[in-house]
Each structure stands twice: as C-alpha cells, then as structure tokens.
Amino acid sequence: MLAGKVAVVTGAGRGIGREIALGMAAEGAAVIVNDIGAALDGQGADASPAQQAVDDIHAAGGQAAASYDSVADWDAAQRIVQSAVDTFGRIDIVVNSAGILRDAIFHKMEPAEWDAVLKVHLYGAFHMSRAAAPHFRAQGSGSYVHMVSTSGLIGSIGQANYAAAKLGIAGLSRSLAMDMSRFGVRSNCIAPHAFSRMIESVPGASPEEKAANLEKRRKQTRADQIAPLAVFLASDAAAGVSGQIFGARGNEVYLYSQPRPIRTLHRGDGWTPESLAAQLPAAWKSSLTPLERTRDVFGWEAI
C-alpha cells in the first residue's frame, strides 16, 4: 500500500513508533527511523534503538535509514526531513510519534516539566510538520499522522503537560488538514492504546493493580496493533480522510467525535450572572461532561 513512498517516523526506536516504522516498511515505504534514544523523561541519548529498528527493516527486505536528531529543535527537524530527501529522493509521510513524560500532580508541576513535554510533543509535531510542508506543497501530495492521547481527549490525573500537548496536536492536525488540503495533503490523528513503556508509567494504578493486569493487557493491547491504522491513513486508500481523530485499542478501531455545540439557551433581553445561575445549571446538568478518566470511559476489555 505504500510502494514508492518515503516516510519519516519519529520516536521510532521503540514502542508504537517502531511498530509503525516496521509496518510502513513492510508495505513498501522507505523509512527514516528517527529516535534520539532517550529515557522516558527525555534524558540521555542512545543510538541503538533506532539502529536496531533499521537493521530489522533491512533484515525483512525493506529500506530504512536512522536519524538521531531531536524533534524539539527547529533546525534538527529540518535535518530529519532533509535526510529523507537526500537518502530516498522525496518525502510523502510524516508520523509524529516521538514523546516523553514528566508526570506530576498539577500543584507540584514545575515549569521545566511543562516546557520539556510541550517541546517534544507539540513543538515537535509543529517542527516536523512544518519542515515537510514545502515538500508536500511542491509535489501536491502528502500525509501527516499524529499520535495524540486520551489524556487530552478525555482526561488523566497528573498529566496536565502531556494532556495539553496532545490536545494541542489535535488542533494542529485539524488546522493542517484545512490549510494544506488545496495541495492534496491530509492530516489525521490516532489516540493509541498499547502497553508500551510510556503507557505503563501512567499514574493512577497501585503496584498491585499493575502487576495483576500488566501481562494480560500487554497481550490484549499491543503496539503492533496500532500500526495498520497508521499505514492505512498514510496510504492513498485514505485519500478522502482528513482532519479526523481515530483510536486503536487491541483489535478495535474507532472514530472520535470533535467538539461541537450540543445545547443552547437563548434569552431575548440578554444574560446576567444571576439569570445564568438561575437557569443554566438545572437546564444543562444532564449534558455536562463528567470528570472522567480514560478507564472510566472505556469500561470494556479490549479484545
């Protein structure tokens, strides 16, 4: 499905990014495997994860090259995209999968924790998307696939920085889809469920709960189950699909709604704070979105 195409996949040394890179290579794409090889909090660097993914693609008969630049840096993102053009002659697909975590309950979150996460996720998605945009525009085609999260779409505890970044990416994708549609370019998001090292670190479960559920959920929600959706969205088979948010969990795929007005109140002589207080809470009580976490919304087991 991706024969003749060139993809850049960020965060592709491990987890979901790695499986997407392998999946795209298996469908014929030449892949730039980008990963600095940092720890989960973004510290350090290790070339081996990206190189191992490249080696595995080569062993399967595919084409790939490694990139170790950081998406958090504007100039580095330019080099990542240029490496695709220099190595394989063009660029057709950008998958924004690179990410880090700096979880903290909000009243204890430090500015450095906020900045680090937004730099990799939100700024990284912008840097990579913007670097590819002139190439996509010139050739009249291209596809962006961004990893978002239910932490932003639904809610999570102790992840204000991550949630804000991921919901920001959803807005970025929607704008890309609109701005770039005249050039034949599409942009979509995936909110993945897969028990990678990032998901396993999310707060909210006790050590006992994690131990009891970990092995089962690792088998039910795997990173390789996300890759088919990403491959499809990057392919010409998804030519009519843009500006959407999808989910993938186990063998399920689903489409998210996006914010639209659901209730209205009109008052001919206008509103005051007092009249709003008298009417709005009772009128809209049943329609207010509850403070739920992802596990509250997804009340069924993945199969």
Automatic annotation (TrEMBL):
This is 3-hydroxyacyl-CoA dehydrogenase. PROSITE patterns: ADH_SHORT. Residues 5-201 form the Ketoreductase domain. It comes from Candidimonas nitroreducens. SMART domains: PKS_KR. Belongs to the short-chain dehydrogenases/reductases (SDR) family.
